[in-house]
């Protein structure tokens, strides 16, 4: 593991933080390029990107504290400002909220903003998960004796037991989702089509991975992340069901 990209007596730069920065810059570049091809109205993309960063980070930190009260607290400033301890689902909620607000106040089509973000978000997530894996930032899974199980003796959160390498699972299914969305994008999909397919596929994959993740059970026999993944899946499934119903009604009419 490589928890630190650079470390000296006075400066420490975490690998996870570096990978998050790369993920942000990559996602930013891809998102702006995509918006330029789908929006006819000029929009302040730089402002939107900055807002996405701020709301994403704040949402990620808030959700992490809510899901892990035993590890972080709103009254503990050090845990709030730590370079580790983020929730991808919290980042997603924060990004969705600010995207809606930006769309409302700037009279920009919300579906174009969300659909354009689908593939850049997945690619950025893959890069961030690579950072999590390299840092050993407590994102590994339950103990396992499977051939590919790993230990993280040099990680930020040390474990000498062999465990499920959950970040590698997340990287794997995210790459598949990336290819799947890329194929869908060429079909001139309907509004929210790309984003809802992201919710559907991301939700079911994360839900399944949570069975081997080391997150504590919080609600209805599920971890907080697993419950959030279920909501994502149901959101995407509901959209597809409504689209299918509307299509049948048009054919019948």
UniProtKB/TrEMBL annotation:
GO cellular component: plasma membrane
Key word Lyase present: no
Matching Pfam families: LGT
Highest taxon, organism lineage: Bacteria
Signal peptide coordinates: none
UniProt xrefs under InterPro entries: Lgt
GO molecular function: phosphatidylglycerol-prolipoprotein diacylglyceryl transferase activity
Keyword field: Cell membrane, Lipoprotein, Membrane, Transferase, Transmembrane, Transmembrane helix
Any one of the GO BP annotations: lipoprotein biosynthetic process
Transmembrane segments: 6-26, 47-66, 86-105, 193-213, 219-242
Family of the protein in this entry: Belongs to the Lgt family.
Entries under PANTHER family matching the protein: PHOSPHATIDYLGLYCEROL--PROLIPOPROTEIN DIACYLGLYCERYL TRANSFERASE, PROLIPOPROTEIN DIACYLGLYCERYL TRANSFERASE
Name of protein: Prolipoprotein diacylglyceryl transferase
Organism: Aliikangiella marina
Top-level taxonomy: Bacteria, Pseudomonadati, Pseudomonadota, Gammaproteobacteria, Oceanospirillales
